[in-house]
Automatic annotation (TrEMBL):
Any Pfam family: Amidohydro_1
One Gene Ontology term of the molecular function aspect: hydrolase activity, acting on carbon-nitrogen (but not peptide) bonds
Source organism (scientific name): [Actinomadura] parvosata subsp. kistnae
Protein name stated in the entry: Peptidase M38
Superkingdom as given in the UniProt entry: Bacteria
Stretches assigned to the Amidohydrolase-related domain: 53-401
Length: 401
């Protein structure tokens, strides 16, 4: 199957320059770019008349199974019901221009396989299975009076409780056995969990290092949920590759990001959405009251990290009916960054984080033919990315979707 885009303005995200050219896709890859390209007779040809083309967008922090903001209820839902919701959520993500997403707990190999085989319309799905949490940690959704349930491993849900080095190793190995692209650990408290404080640290250094060792042994890596500088810095010292959120980092954190060549994945839009709509979509009142602790600090943390040279990836972390705000993250980040730098986080930066540099997030010949055709110039006006109405075409693996 071949697709030829004529008269395009192709963006080189690395340089920020546009090139007037044609682009041909074949066998799911970008086959060639240049002027006056020709293609086989069965090729579909689209004349873009000077429209701008950017690489397919990458969201490095999603929860495609989160049909509600009350994450604790997912474990009691039928897995088939959760999968049906996930299919709709993923389809909408693709329509917004996201051709690859990294799930930060909840999605499994079944959803990833279904997408790869064409059974589910959606972005390429990089999954971690269930996130690892200590007892009383960010993925332990029991109320204070509930005892630990013996959940079947096929139950829906975003987390599993593992305490102690041996249990953490076993849990990490189990997720890797099932094909996890990365391991997710809860290294601090959070908004959606019922019994922890946001400013707590979670997991001992030995437990954190055990997960990192297991991931590295499998040529994978650990992503850690963490908010405060204290929690972030411990995770970075343990060898974690990406920090999710990081709203309360300090200058020492920036130094550690650089020292360990780690990534920060801010998720500003989820706090904005949770504050505005969280209770409407199932966020418990006690969790809603936690939002203010991290809402205002997120933008300052992004500014601190960007000015310090920290490697950044785009993430949203939206839940329930708030998934529709996925592109709003572009507008929020543009308050402290240039549009080009925000776009880099959603293309080359995220691709580097997930180990697919040169494969996704680029319009280079040989890369996966994932691209977005836009009405307008996103480098001049961030709303071209922030408002999905400006997405004219989405192409995934060389096919107009």
């Amino acid at each position: 199957m071949s697709l030829l885009l004529k008269n395009a303005l192709l963006l080189d995200v690395a340089t920020g320059d546009y090139t007037e050219a044609d682009l041909r896709c074949a066998d799911g890859r970008i086959a060639e770019t240049g002027h006056g390209l020709t293609a086989p007779d069965d090729t579909r040809v689209i004349d873009l008349a000077g429209a701008r083309v950017v690489p397919g967008l990458i969201d490095a922090h999603v929860h495609v199974t989160a049909s509600t903001a009350n994450l604790g209820t997912l474990g009691s839902m039928s897995p088939s019901y959760v999968a049906a919701h996930s299919a709709r959520i993923m389809s909408d993500m693709l329509s917004r221009g996201f051709t690859t997403v990294r799930d930060a707990s909840g999605a499994d190999f079944g959803l990833a396989d279904a997408q790869a085989e064409g059974l589910v319309r959606g972005p390429r799905l990089l999954f971690c299975g269930k996130g690892l949490s200590q007892t009383g940690g960010h993925a332990d959704f029991r109320g204070r009076g509930e005892h630990l349930k013996d959940d079947h491993p096929c139950c829906a849900g975003v987390g599993r409780v593992a305490d102690g080095v041996d249990a953490v190793r076993a849990a990490a190995r189990d997720e890797l056995r099932k094909g996890a692209h990365h391991i997710k650990m809860m290294a601090s408290g959070g908004v959606a969990s019922p019994t922890d404080r946001i400013d707590s640290t979670q997991y001992s250094m030995d437990e954190l290092r055990a997960a990192v060792e297991e991931a590295e042994a499998a040529n994978r890596y650990v992503a850690a949920h963490a908010y405060t500088a204290r929690a972030v810095n411990r995770a970075l010292e343990a060898g974690v590759r990406s920090i999710e959120h990081g709203n309360l980092i300090d200058d020492t954190s920036v130094e550690l990001f650089l020292k360990h060549d780690a990534f920060l994945v801010p998720t500003l839009v989820t706090y904005w959405a949770l504050k505005e709509e969280g209770r409407e979509f199932g966020l418990p009142e006690r969790s809603w009251r936690k939002v203010d602790e991290v809402l205002d600090a997120g933008l300052a943390a992004l500014d601190r990290a960007a000015r310090g040279g920290v490697r950044l990836a785009y993430g949203t972390d939206l839940l329930g009916g708030m998934h529709r705000h996925q592109n709003q993250e572009f507008r929020l980040r543009a308050e402290v960054q240039r549009p080009l730098d925000v776009l880099r986080a959603a293309t080359t930066g995220a691709a580097e984080l997930v180990g697919l540099a040169g494969e996704i997030g680029t319009l280079a010949v040989g890369a996966h033919a994932d691209l977005v055709v836009l009405d307008g110039d996103p480098l001049a006006d961030i709303s071209v990315l922030a408002d999905p109405k400006h997405v004219r075409h989405v192409i995934q693996a060389g096919t107009l979707v």
